[in-house]
Design a protein that fits this description.
This protein is mainly alpha-helical. The chain is built from 15 helices and 3 strands. It has a 3-stranded parallel sheet, sandwiched between helices. Helix 7 crosses helix 8, helix 8 crosses helix 9 and helix 10 packs antiparallel against helix 14.
Length: about 250
């Protein structure tokens, strides 16, 4: 625990990605100092941890406008379950977005609501684990999702959904050095074996092979053409996933 801004700055100089719980009760200059921390240490995620008191909430308002979206209220939602869920969400947020950039041209051809749902899926990959989840967020039916994804030029809706979590897993394995088991747990796969199955379908490599890569971009370069119809000339990937993402709900595993 750091008691001063100076202590916090020194600690951040020697840290990688981290999550900061900051209390607006630190007083005057809280918003400006916090924003300065965010700009200097972009790998640091900020969570406001405070009490339900109007003066403290008021101190937080400039940070909400600057993009801080996470707050925990002491005595209300600071349970162990809530904090664990929040930490997982923050740690996986945005991990898949570089792959989204690679397929943006095809994503742009999707209907507006579905396009927004796909962007949200890549921003928070653990929130969408089946075509049904994607359809729900887009406010449409699964049938329409399958049809729209094909029309836009993707190989399949199942493969697109699977790619969000798999690409996040690639980044965790390559950049953070996490184990396959830890990565599977963080991204809410039912087991490390299920993660391996999805890797073979989406990347064409095992997690251990991806972990040995010099750059996560190597993995993304393997994934992107597998998502777009016709780039590799066959559709065996969707056949593999059609068994794992069974309509009974296996896609939620």
């Amino acid at each position: 625990m750091c008691e001063t801004w100076e202590d916090l700055s020194r600690a951040l100089e020697h840290s990688g990605p981290t999550i900061l719980f900051l209390d607006p009760a630190l007083g005057d200059g809280f918003a400006s100092r916090t924003q300065a921390i965010r700009e200097r240490y972009p790998l640091a995620a900020v969570v406001l941890y405070t009490q339900v008191k109007p003066p403290l909430i008021k101190l937080s308002l400039p940070l909400f406008r600057a993009g801080v979206s996470d707050m925990v209220l002491a005595g209300f939602d600071d349970t162990a379950e809530r904090l664990a869920s929040l930490l997982t969400e923050i740690q996986t947020r945005g991990l898949s977005e570089p792959l989204l950039d690679m397929i943006a041209g095809v994503v742009d051809r999707l209907p507006k609501a579905l396009r927004s749902a796909v962007v949200a899926m890549f921003a928070e990959p653990t929130k969408v684990r089946s075509v049904g989840d994607l359809a729900r967020i887009a406010g449409t039916s699964r049938r329409r999702v399958f049809r729209a994804v094909k029309t836009a030029g993707f190989e399949s809706a199942r493969l697109l959904v699977a790619s969000a979590r798999v690409s996040a897993a690639c980044r965790l394995l390559v950049q953070s050095g996490r184990t396959v088991a830890d990565t599977a747990a963080m991204l809410q796969y039912s087991s490390a074996d299920r993660l391996c199955e999805h890797f073979l379908a989406v990347v064409g490599r095992t997690p251990r092979e991806v972990k040995a890569m010099l750059s996560v971009d190597e993995a993304y370069q393997l994934i992107a053409p597998r998502l777009v119809r016709g780039q590799l000339g066959h559709t065996s990937f969707d056949h593999r996933l059609s068994q794992e993402f069974a309509e009974s709900g296996a896609g939620n595993s």
